[in-house]
Amino acid sequence: MSENKHVAYFSMEIGLESNIKTYAGGLGILAGDTLKSAGEMGVNVVGISLLYKHGYFKQTLDKETGDQSEATDDWDPNQFLKLNPISLQLELFGSDVNVQIWQYQLENSNKVLFIDTNLDSNPDQIKAITNNLYEADNLIRLQQEMLLGIGGVMILEKLGYNINKYHLNESHAAFGVFPLLEKYSQDAVKDMVVFTTHTPVLHGHRGYKMDILKEYLPQKYLQFIPKEIIKDGSVLLTDICLAYSGFNNGVSKKHAQVSKLLFPDSDFEAITNGIHATTWASDSIQKLFDKYLPNWRQDPFELRNALKIPSIEILHAHSENKQLLFDYIYEKTAKSFDKEVLTIGFGRRADSYKRNNLVFQDIERLKQIADKYDGIQFVFAGKSYPNVEAGEKMIRDIYSHSLNSTESYNVVYLEDYDMDIAKLMISGCDIWLNTPKKTMEASGTSGMKAALNGVPSLSVLDGWWVEGCVEDVTGWSIGGICEDPEDQMCELSNIYDTLEDKILPLYKINKLEWVKIMQQSIAINGSYFHTHRMLSEYISKAYFK
Q1: Which residues are CB-neighbours of 312 under 8 A, at least 6 positions away?
Q2: pTM for the complete prediction?
Q3: Where does 81-233 show beta strands of DSSP type E?
Q4: How many angstroms separate the CA atoms of 103 and 112, rounded?
Q5: What integer is the mean pLDDT of 10-29?
Q6: Cα end-to-end span (Å), the chain
Q7: Per-residue pLDDT at 86
């Protein structure tokens, strides 16, 4: 791969900064973290996504019921991005589409390109394509995915990029293989396309009826849809990716196995996700790393020496983080939290498989444990998909516990979860909780962010935690003792037993052992689960092979 050749990284969402509203959750944050590491490592990678005028959505919660409401999350790209002076015209959807390109500058002259159709020269229906991330309207969503995939490939060519590899971060950019197949043989395209799946359940893989594809895809591209992937008159975008990619991977070892079960005709490598260390380490933790591990920014593997950091300084840095989180909680909710009380964090999208409210299913037992050890505090955050009752009901349930908090049992739900709130939570809580149904967590990166800040996880053994959990060393597992993986009551009992018998006694009575676990979380997990390591694996296994 010569110096002037690039990897093109396609992602429907990319999270770079909290106020750049081009992300919704973990997929976008991963993309942003990956692109940041590429710039720092001197790897020529260009990111490509769409610019969403109204963002994803701004979440507000009813103060009495916890009902979620959604509003547009408008922002001004001029404050964060630079507009490319070149205006482009693409032939898409049977007409000419005018686009402008916004750029975000990374290190090593790397850029992230955001495609924008919100131009006066376009009709309203074309302008609407880049209004909202994950547009609910099925037709607009199809046009978004065509714009990202087909349009993205065209734009890179028009801007003069010499692309060696096209990395599809999830299947949203699947249509991008079609303009490549116009120019190159199928074998050549397979050598150029890398596909990463993040979805461990079949119903999460998006598809379209052939009837709508015949109406909106250019006729010349329909020939590239293999007949064998058309099932019941529909096509999964993932099947298009798998048909034309030469390298496929899941985002953890466990997820690669699950992906093989979902798509048995394809092979999947495992490249476990990571996080961008300097983005997610809190200011006080960064100061400690700079003092005792001075090369960690260039080489995050240096964090394996975190045991060198004096215990008292780790505790002091964490105390600062806790105060920042509690100050924010008080500002937003007028709730007072106690720095001496064990604080458990849970920041995820509210979704039935994530079981955000599992810990409250035996509330009397939980309150007994809290009373025994002078209290437990919970900090929750996360949006539900709009109009998905299961997720919204989960938020209401957790919110009801926040209304019934006691002196020893305090709960808060922070609205409008974003990158800034996430950073406060993953560094300011004492424990990071994660309770997905087994095999349904592809990877999960929030626990990695917590570990980087010395916050151990209490998590179901799924996704990354299968690899990251060293029991009683980097944190604790949930459900490992349960014979039946579907036995939720066994998992729940395991959570309470671990809190009562292991976590709280350590936290309240043996601070030296507690801070050792904090250090081990950094040294073992923080030093490994980062995007510098992850990108190195993509380079050796997929980009440069």
Answers
A1: none
A2: 0.97
A3: 82-83, 88-92, 95-105, 111-116, 162-169, 193-196, 207-209
A4: 6
A5: 97
A6: 10
A7: 87
